[in-house]
Design a protein that fits this description.
Length: 217
């Protein structure tokens, strides 16, 4: 695992990745995190200033800069081979990211950008299972992280919040102790695990049969 003072560079262009996205509007933060086939969770850097794909609305006149988020996803899809992305659209109101997620899937999909809600009583079972898998894979070192300091802070802020049926979700201890990059890491890992179970990243061999020989390509 990287040390606290080490933030690894992004993987090279062409790397296979799955993604997570957690969208907000004017208080909580918005984030994109990616995971490689071999289990490296990282924060992409984008644009001319190589900004991390984690947006604090307070740094953008009080609202998440949706144009920046669109530009980041365009660059990510141009640089990397995105298998799928699980996206929490936020609350289903006028500031929801549902339309943006559908638009990204139309542009970069199909069936690649998938809504994956992290809140609400109907989601307790799925969210609890995703958190348990994330925690187990961290413990076994099946996944590792790039040392992103913002994500480190958000993970440190995150608390288990009890839910019915001996389940739990993630919550923050106070409104100013954000956890959005932690939530997004869980989404990216869940997307990568589900994609791996369907064969993502596995090399296949194609055999060409001729009248005299069999060649492998």
């Amino acid at each position: 695992m990287p040390g606290d003072d080490i933030w690894l560079p992004n993987p090279p262009d062409g790397t296979l990745v799955c993604g997570g996205f957690d969208g907000s509007e004017n208080d909580d933060w918005t984030a994109i995190r990616l995971e490689t086939v071999d289990g490296l969770l990282f924060t992409p850097r984008y644009g001319p200033d190589r900004r991390p794909t984690i947006w604090n609305p307070a740094e953008w006149s009080g609202k998440t800069p949706r144009g920046e988020v669109h530009a980041a996803w365009e660059e990510i899809n141009r640089r990397y081979k995105v298998g799928r992305a699980y996206c929490d659209p936020g609350f289903m109101d006028e500031v929801s990211w549902k339309t943006e997620i559908e638009t990204w899937d139309q542009i970069y999909g199909p069936k690649k950008f998938i809504p994956w809600v992290m809140s609400g009583s109907s989601r307790y079972t799925a969210v609890h299972a995703a958190l348990r898998r994330f925690e187990a894979d961290l413990e076994s070192r099946a996944i590792r992280h790039d040392g992103c300091p913002i994500t480190d802070t958000h993970v440190g802020n995150a608390r288990r919040i009890a839910k019915p049926g001996e389940r739990y979700a993630l919550g923050k201890p106070s409104q100013n102790q954000k956890i959005d990059a932690a939530v997004t890491s869980v989404l990216a890992h869940e997307a990568a695990c589900d994609a791996r179970s369907e064969g993502w990243g596995q090399k296949t061999t194609t055999y060409i049969y001729t009248s005299r020989t069999t060649r492998r390509r």
